[in-house]
Amino acid sequence: MTAFAYRDGHYFAEDVSLRRIADACGTPFYCYSRAAVEARYDAYVEALKDFDALICYAVKANSHQAIIKLLADRGAGADVVSEGELRRALAAGVPAAKIVYSGVAKTVREIEFALQQNIRQFNVESEPELEEISAAAVRLDKTARVSFRINPDVDAGTHEKISTGKSENKFGVPLESASYAYEKAVGLPGIEVCGIDLHIGSQITSLTPFAHAFARVAELAEKLRKDGLTISTIDLGGGLGVNYDEKNDHAPSPAEYVGVVRDTLGHLDCNFIVEPGRSLVGNAGVLVGSVIYVKKSGQSTFLIIDAAMNDFLRPSMYDSYHAIVGERDSGAKNVMYDIVGPVCETGDTFARQREMPAQESGDLIVIEGAGAYGSVMASSYNTRPLVPEVLVDGDEFRIIRKRPSYDSIIGLDLDWESA
Length: 419
Description:
By secondary structure, the protein is of the alpha/beta class.
């Protein structure tokens, strides 16, 4: 489906014009499409219908309560990486039995809280973490269901800052150490070994890395079973990419992805956990800003907008490409712009030498594919308020997070006498 498109010369989210939203809440703002999120989730459900599978939304992609609840109401579980995300999932109505706890550095406090909630499983990243989980389980008279996150040493071909499946990355237990780790787990009190977990990276647009990683996990599962362990669950992680650049990106569909799962792991007769994040929400959201100034300097023409790197960090941090369009399909002559924000950093740049119809002060600018790793990575750098977030459903929209006031931001700080 196309949730964001031009109609009669104006940009719409479902059946609501972005100008209507901008008039209600000002710019910049994030806008999400309910229909787009649901359609993507339903595509995973359809692809996995022949398996005993649980889809656990990777909350880190977009942790807004409305998004988590939307997916929970549709049957999704949650993949969390902190106590805060766990609390968000529970508050949004995700049953604890559908929550898996990932993350490379779970603290004792976080482990104890998760045990008290009786979550589905911990994805364990190291032997020291396993020992802490065991000790906490004994203290609380609980049994912790665990899978080890295996690092299969597979290069997923993604940006170096989101690569997680190579041997030099900080994540998981090396494949060659897995047997020893499982043997140790079986001997610890309060631990129930239930399966294997892996996650090899993010924004993966080729099926080949998945195929290689899954094949290695299949071999491990067969070996562990021969050693007498019960391996009933394979947590496949997430990582499936989206098409940020329609000309150059060719992300597989959930059905194609599940085809690889069937070919490499289907013979194991396991239940599967899938942890999509970006592929559920990435293209279900946009960031909308307004043009402040058009500035010419030397050979460059700068389109300066009121959204900034603190609102949307991906282009600055990952050199990521995002389609950027004007709110009006005016047919104006194209201009080559450097599209930048107002923050005092040269890195506050969304695109360089991007051709688009001529813009002027007050025009709306739409940064597409901003639904994942956008608002969740935002900050108030330069004392800029976090931007509003809006959810569209058909011809209706609601502001699901308001822009904070300057007084509320400054009021968080205490001087020496007040502290």
